[in-house]
Design a protein that fits this description.
123 residues; mainly alpha; binds zinc ion
């Protein structure tokens, strides 16, 4: 046994970590989608013709912010799905760039990491 091979404990902890992060992310997406629906419903009721309406500008800003948050949350979820797939095929602990091991502490802090710290720094 080498000191880089993940123990069953580490594997189980990684799976728990990814599942937890995915669940949190799905909740975030749900609440952001709810907020979006509310925003669309409230802006439909207002006078959308008046571009100089300060409330219209606020709604436009909120829409933009929500769109960005949603895009980020969906990208995070996709990254977590990929991490789960890597965990399943055994490549989770291997750096995608140099093929070396990724430190377990790094993966615990950042389950979506695909490279070791040295490669991440080089980028
Ligand atoms: Zn590397």
């Amino acid at each position: 046994m080498t000191d880089t091979a993940p123990s069953p404990d580490e594997r189980a902890r990684a799976a728990t970590l990814i599942d937890g992060a995915r669940a949190a992310n799905e909740r975030l997406i749900t609440s952001l989608t709810d907020l979006w629906d509310e925003l669309v419903a409230s802006s439909d009721g207002s006078n959308a013709d008046d571009e100089h309406d300060p409330e219209g500008a606020t709604i436009a800003f909120e829409r933009e912010r929500l769109t960005e948050s949603l895009a980020r949350a969906r990208a995070d979820l996709a990254a977590l799905d990929q991490a789960a797939a890597r965990l399943a095929d055994g490549s989770y602990w291997t750096c995608a760039t140099c093929g070396g091991p990724i430190a377990p502490a790094r993966l615990e802090a950042r389950p979506t990491a695909r490279t070791c710290i040295a490669c991440a720094r080089r980028r």
